[in-house]
Amino acid sequence: MLNLAERIVKEGERLGFEDTLVIVRRSRGTLSRFSDKGVALNDSFDSSEVSLNAGKEGRKVVAHFTIHDSDEICKELKRLPNLLKVTDPLAIYAALPTKIEKYRVIDGLFDKRVGELNHFEIMRDIINNADGEKVDSIAGTLTLVESEDAMCTSQGQEGCYKRSEIELNLRAFADKEASGQGIAVSTAFDKFDYLGATRKACREAKMAEKPVNVDPGKWEVLLAPPVVANLFGEVGMFASAYYVDAGISFLAGKLGNKISMEGLNLFDWGNVPYGLASSPFDWEGTPTRQTRIISKGVLSSYLHNLTTAKRFNTESTGNAGWVVPEPTNLVIAPGTETEKSLLKKVSKGIYITNNWYTRYQNYREGTFSSVGRDAAFLIESGEIKKPLKGIRISDSLPSLLSNICSISKERYWVRWWDAEVPVLAPFMLVNELGITTPSCPA
Fold first, then answer.
1. Which end of the chain is more exposed for a tag (fewer CB within 10 A), N or C?
2. d(CA 295, CA 302)
3. Range 2-163 classified under CATH 3.20.20.70
4. What is the pLDDT of residue 71?
């Protein structure tokens, strides 16, 4: 892997590139879809990809292609000099670092057992466990992946690492309007609580039977970790200095300002142990690190790559994506409450266990709506009273952040296709959160 990356860098130098970074990634694993009736799809994959960032005379081009053979690599590389010629020079050009870094080893990033697991046995355990919970049906996906990355630059920097991932996304159904979702995701098998996720999905589905409509208005709302992960993944994206500079982030101009309760601490942690997006280096070869985005409720930092760091007269935070800075793993520091104690605090409110389709009316203001998915409940006098349906969160991210009042000690890693940024998320209690229904627009 590293030898291939080095060969591509040398070929880039031969073609006249001044600034080249290459990452070669090999991924192999299985993707399975299953239900209570059995396995519907079992797809194995083994692919290798090349990502390349090349610069010359203030211009830059990026490329990404799948490796089939060496001739194809050469053919793709020969196209890039012509692309550079027709590319406008960048207003700010940041060269790759010349300092050679020594990357740290990240604990828990690779578990060789993941590649040895019998995924059919795991699915059979899930199906049998769900059958004991007496729900109508279940459906889910199970993904096991082993990957290896090798990085090399024209400045002589190089690094490589392995990562394993195992992910379950499960839905349980008690009737056509009653469902629950269970998520289990980890880099290590011994931290992969797939049976706990199964029981959670089934329990919430049964509790959600015969839901009633909710009254629109401002509510005290208890958000479960999947909802927190979805919304704070958005906060992390808006912390990208690129979006701030482009004027499409609600966090623009708020650095150093109080935006939430003192108990809220949000980190981007690119090398957190067992992190689903942890890596020793970012896509520019900068070592990853822990960055405080929100510290005691105060917006403390944006996320930078080399270009935005130069634009803002600061240093890269190790958050380079292939084009713009982006979050890696988002970690919300634990609070002092428990899920049960947060529930007890609510005199009359709503408990939302999941959401999806978060969409914006105005990026600059952070106004959004997000559709409730799966179980939701009315809370009265600190107890769950009845299931609800037709819920839509309609508010703004600044308002949501300013109205957080309590955070749980319990936290869970969340990642699925509608919450792509991995978040270590707690339960959160939010005051005055706008709730609408399909018949009551925001």
1. C
2. 12
3. no
4. 73
